[in-house]
Amino acid sequence: MVDSVTYIKERHPEIYRNMKYKIVEISASLAKSQRKRAKQEGLGDVVEVINEDFFKWSGVQDSGEGSYVVALEVFVSPGIVLSFVASDNQDNLAHDMIRYDVKTLTPYQAVVAIDAHGDFSFLYEPCSDPLLRRYLAYQRLLPASPSTTPPLIQSSFIRSLYASLPFAPNLSKPDWIPTKAMLFLEKLRETIPGHRLMIADFSELPDTVEGRNGPVVQTRIGGNMIPCETILVKQGYFDIFFPTGKPCFTFEPTS
User: Fold this and answer.
1) CA distance 9 to 42
2) Do 191 and 253 meet the contact criterion of CB atoms below 8 Å apart?
3) How far is Cα 83 from Cα 35, in angstroms, rounded to an integer?
């Protein structure tokens, strides 16, 4: 924030006089420190820190026509009035997991079951979750690519041969679906319909859980980060974060 605004202030004072740099920050403590930093750098008249959940944010007061949304590991949005909006990290946005029937390519959503002993396991059921169904509907509008097709061989004949092998699994490897990122894009289209968007983040991570766009699951033991092979771990003791992967779709600004 300091570098961006200072650069504009020094190189483009005519823009600086009319700009507003907005940060939407869900953490009260981080919002406080950001306001303090802006004031210390003499940028308090331009920087506005909004202590609010981005997904509950009411957005800009106009169409945001000409705004530029930049998401560099954190979501940021500059506008004409240059407004920068920071939100959750992309790698921390929740994902859902589906697997496909090897023969029919029918998607099945994963749900986590907890037994009487507190142990976790996956169960699979027909895809009925509205978010997942909406994501898959968007995906079907796009040309076939490694990002938009089920992570299986597309030849039905070869899939049938594979399924007939002894002990062959009847479901594909996991496909981790960025449903929360989809909600972010929809929210952005709603609140700043005239925006332009650029996103940059980690496209891949080491030691990930199996599956397309699988997450890293890790915990700290004795000062060392230890990766895990499953997301079925005790809540609150492990970090789970996802690679951004190749984008499946974007929302064009509305006129």
Assistant:
1) 11
2) no
3) 15
Over residues 85-105, the pLDDT tens digits come to 333 344 457 788 999 998 888
Q: Which one is predicted more confidently, 196 or 245?
A: 196
Distance (Å, rounded) from C-alpha 61 to C-alpha 88? Answer: 22
Strands (E), 56-186: 68-72, 74-76, 96-100, 107-114, 120-126, 175-177
Q: How far is CA 175 from CA 95, 97, 152, 247, in A?
A: 10, 6, 10, 14
Rounded to an integer, the average pLDDT of 34-42 is 93
pLDDT tops 80 at residue 200: no
> Rounded to the nearest 5 degrees, what angle is found at the Cα of 208, between the Cα atoms of 177 and 130?
15
Total count of residues recorded for the chain: 255
